[in-house]
Amino acid sequence: MNHTHSIFFSPTGTSRAVVRAVARGVNRPSETTLDLTRQEAPPARFDADHLAIVGMPVYRGRLPRTAIGRFQPLEGNRTPAVAIVVYGNWAYEDALLELCDLCTAQGFRLVGAAAFIGQHSFSSLKHPIAENRPNPQDLEQAEQLGRRVREQMEQPGLSMPELPGSRPYKEVPPDPFVSATDVDTASCTGCGRCTTACPTRCIEMVGSLPQTAPDRCLWCMACVRQCPASARRIVLPKIHEAAQRLSTNCKIPQEPEIFLPSGG
Ligand SMILES: Cc1cc2nc3c(=O)[nH]c(=O)nc-3n(C[C@H](O)[C@H](O)[C@H](O)COP(=O)(O)O)c2cc1C
């Protein structure tokens, strides 16, 4: 196993940070990065002696549908895979099970799974939620996971433990066709950073101002995080309410949970 594929969908960068740390721990001579945040994976079949590290955020206890679609052109050939979900300190519910099932259905063989904590996409100065996670301790645990995966892959006959979550997965209503964010025209500099940050390209420059098409907004907050002028603002009351509720109710820091094969 000399080659690692780091694969992630990560609008605000926390899933990417965790996947990268796991890859550092695996520490193989060559690595490919496949960032699915703004594009679908090109069709590819991975070799059996490669390793895939796959990371996605938790949205409403499940995987984002866009992330699933972007991962689907990839096929394993009993290729070992580590499945990682990153959640905002509230709950990951069925998301890890869903990612493991997705990897298995696409021909990968699980050699590790984990749920890590990332700063909540809705976190703000006023309503902080899991601020600055993953922190250095989280990233050290992610590297440690990578080292253990590398050691354990040499051992035959191990099998993955049962994972939290249940099938059928939790029902989530279809994505709402409404934009979560808007632009403060007084502070927008027209740089267009939000148009390239958006995973679904639902923001377009019209003249010197960005306009958002509501139908493809994922509420992911990539535009808010990446605006250099802090001109993107959340306009959906539901999100303000959720941020307020979560910053009050989710103060106790959760710890990463790691699942590795055992037995043999
Ligand atoms: C639409 C949406 C739904 C979310 N649902 C959950 C959730 O059910 N549980 C949770 O703990 N965090 C939830 N989060 C927070 C993200 O899982 C968390 O911020 C994650 O670190 C984002 O990953 P990224 O930085 O790779 O984009 C949600 C975020 C968004 C945007």
Notes on the protein architecture:
- The protein has helices spanning 14-26, 65-71, 95-105, 136-152, 193-197, 222-226, 237-249, and strands spanning 3-8, 30-35, 44-45, 50-57, 74-75, 79-87, 108-117, 158-159, 181-183, 203-206, 209-212, 232-234, 257-259, 262-263.
- It is of the alpha/beta class and 264 residues long.
- It folds into two domains: 3-168 and 252-263, Flavodoxin domain (Rossmann fold); 181-235, Alpha-Beta Plaits (2-Layer Sandwich), CATH 3.30.70.
- Helix 1 (14-26) packs across helix 4 (136-152).
- The radius of gyration is 19 Å and the shape is globular.
- The structure holds flavin mononucleotide (FMN).
- Flavin mononucleotide binds at residues 10-15, 57-61, 86-91, 118-121, 219-221.
- Residues 10-15, 57-61, 86-91, 118-121, 219-221 line the site of flavin mononucleotide (FMN).
How far apart the termini lie comes to 20 Å
Low-confidence stretches: none
The overall average pLDDT, rounded, is 95
CATH superfamily of the largest domain: Flavodoxin domain
